[in-house]
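Re: that chain you flagged

S.,

Sorry for the slow reply, it's been a week of failed gels. I finally had a moment to sit down with the sequence you sent. For the record, here it is as I used it:
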Amino acid sequence: MAGTADIGLIGLAVMGQNLVMNMNDHGYTVAVFNRTTSKVDEFLNGDAKNTRVIGTHTVQELVANLKRPRKVMLMVQAGNAVDAVIAELVPFLEPGDIIIDGGNSHYTDTARRCKDLEAKGFLFVGCGVSGGEEGARNGPSLMPGGSPAAWPEIKAIFQAIAAKVADGTPCCEWMGAGGAGHFVKMVHNGIEYGDIQLISEAYDVMGNVLGMHPDEMADVFTDWNKGELNSYLIEIASDVLRFKDEDGTPLISKIVDAAMQKGTGKWTSEAALDMAVPLSLITEAVLARFLSGLKDERVNASRVLPGPTPAFTGDKSAFLRDLGPALFAAKIISYTQGYMLFRAADVEYGWNLNYGGIALIWREGCIIRSAFLGRIKEAYDRNPRLVNLLLDDYFKTQIQAGEPGWRRVLSKMVEWGVPAPALSSALSFYDGYRRERLPANMVQALRDYFGAHTYERVDKPRGQFFHTNWTGHGGNVTAGSYSA
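Prediction finished late last night. Pasting the structure tokens below so you have them in one place:
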């Protein structure tokens, strides 16, 4: 008997259920399965009651209900669980059938699964899904990549359920082969780490130095959200600051200052290290979460380690007028570094990523959605070969406008002893990138002195390497595989 469902979905946690309902709203019939089968029945008797959703109680039954080529989307925990479900599915599938992983899988796992399944005649898609529960239900940003032949088969469904920009363009486009989709989602999450850390640093200085009440801070974020900083995260920062606990006091003040993570920010930093990309801001955001986790140690250290006591004197309004542009300038650096990582990955994997297109699919639906992303799309429309966002006229102008206030804000935060790892690393990157000559010549000299690692000379063509016998008895043999 021929199947009637357009797509199957395995994994009925909140994200899975919301995606199913989204697909149902757009006229698609979805067959669903969950390892704990009682969740299937609860779903069918709850939100999915009186819909086209088909409940199944075995993987075999799920597959039997699907139209050919069969399309099965997995919304399960990343890692071994994905491999386990794939192994359970494959015996019931036929060549040409499509498996879609919609979880936060590591892009190298996606590339491996794609290669293995293609060798068996199947198609595999690793799709980044951003927007949280609300996005899944009402329109997420979708970043599919993997087996190119799968895209024509899933395109209509995915673009129907995706968020849309103002002109109706869906926030979903094919990213590239192999692990491209999950790589783009990983970088999205890394940038999200950076944005959140920048917001937290602004919140810190407003509260602990300027002495502002959360409601006052919320007003500032609301005002920022009307300008270049307009974004989902700035908007909800205002909501968070205004939210009151049951006793009428700000809930934000009662939340323990120990941040958790699920690993995608760390993966972004690891990829940057592997590809020699100076992803300093996002890496500092990851490290800031690690430092926050040392809560007990920090409590003890606060009692014994001296430092300045923040004491603001001056014009608070003037400081806030500097803080907003400083935040925006650092945000530009975060995205600049993310796009540098995209370029490095393109060289590494040959994905031919559409840089402007990525900004467009992040424009709505996802956690980092903002008006700012339209500026990135415009930059790549102006110059598809743009090497670095900082070299685009718009971003160059914005950085230059915010730079004086950025420096004033950071100088005061250093003076007050207020940590600003993201804001400061962003400025250090900017100052390093704009320098014609860095002190790396000293690095090379020291490496050559102790390890004969060689160096290049400014008075000789690049690519020629030299070694100096610095002590007179070190010899003239240079390093091969030796490293130190």
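What I noticed first: The chain has 19 helices and seven strands.

Talk soon,
D.
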